[in-house]
Amino acid sequence: MVRTTPHDPPPDGQEPLYRRIATELLGELREGTVPPGERLPGERRLAGHFGVSRETVRQALELLRRDGLVATDRRGSHATLPGLPVGTPVSLTFPVGARTAAPDGVARATVTWEAPPADHAEALELAPGRPTLVHRYRYATADGQGLRTAVTSFSAVALAEVEELARYRDRADGTAAAQLRRAYDWMRRAGLTLHHRDAITPLASTPSVRVTRRVHDQYARPLEITDLVVDAQRDALVYEFTLPGRAVQAATDRHRSPVRRTTGAGSRR
Asked: How far is it, in rounded angstroms, from Cα 43 to Cα 51?
């Protein structure tokens, strides 16, 4: 949503300004600016977008609520227009590279409250040295081969808006097991729309590759970054893509980022 020209109050005899805003907002929703079921921007942001007061936005939203086109709950207001539900890509699992342990495999995950790696802090817009929730994942077969390790750092936004993640701060001592397999589900339940980009690069002088996943929300705010290291000689990375429905095509295309893949390190389907 981008708008720079504010609306002037309507001359006498014309429809109320809030009705015009409701009509324009409904048109944008039908174009797929916000997919069905996803949270709308807040009143302040909508007011700036349409160049009107927050009170006008409230009246417009109330009009759409009465018509059943917008619903409001503890997450805020969200579109209820008919359309395909927002899908959860199979490949978007937390952490990237997580897998069901084979009979001869062992997986372990822990969390700590510490300053993340410098590149993570930069990606998450954290001040150097500022602590955050850091998740570590390790998977290996009984013979020590097929090793996968992943380190994830969460942003201040993620911890502020996702209650389930914030709860881990007081027990993030790095000793107790911490399975955050539902982290992405928690983010979606908090009203965040997830967009991610995976970059795959080889590690010099080793048979391993690094997969770096960056996840941000519908407002381009960073949520988390993960670095996964996997043995490319013994393992494969499979990426699955789901084409969006027509109703959400435009919104999805704006956020889709390319995935770079190293030959021999994985496959696509």
From this structure: 12
CA distances, 267 to each of 20, 97, 264 (Å): 50, 14, 8
Within 31-113, where are the H helices?
A: 43-50, 54-66
Tell me 241's DSSP state.
-
How many C-beta neighbours within 10 Å does residue 8 have? 9
Residue for token digits 């997919």? 35
**What confidence tens digit (pLDDT) does each residue in 218-231 have?**
889 999 999 998 87
DSSP, res 34: S
pTM for the model stands at 0.56
> Helix or strand or coil: residue 259?
coil
Question: Which amino acid makes up residue 197?
Answer: R
Nearest CA-CA partner of 135 in 123, 117, 147: 117
Copy the structure tokens of residue 140. 């290996």
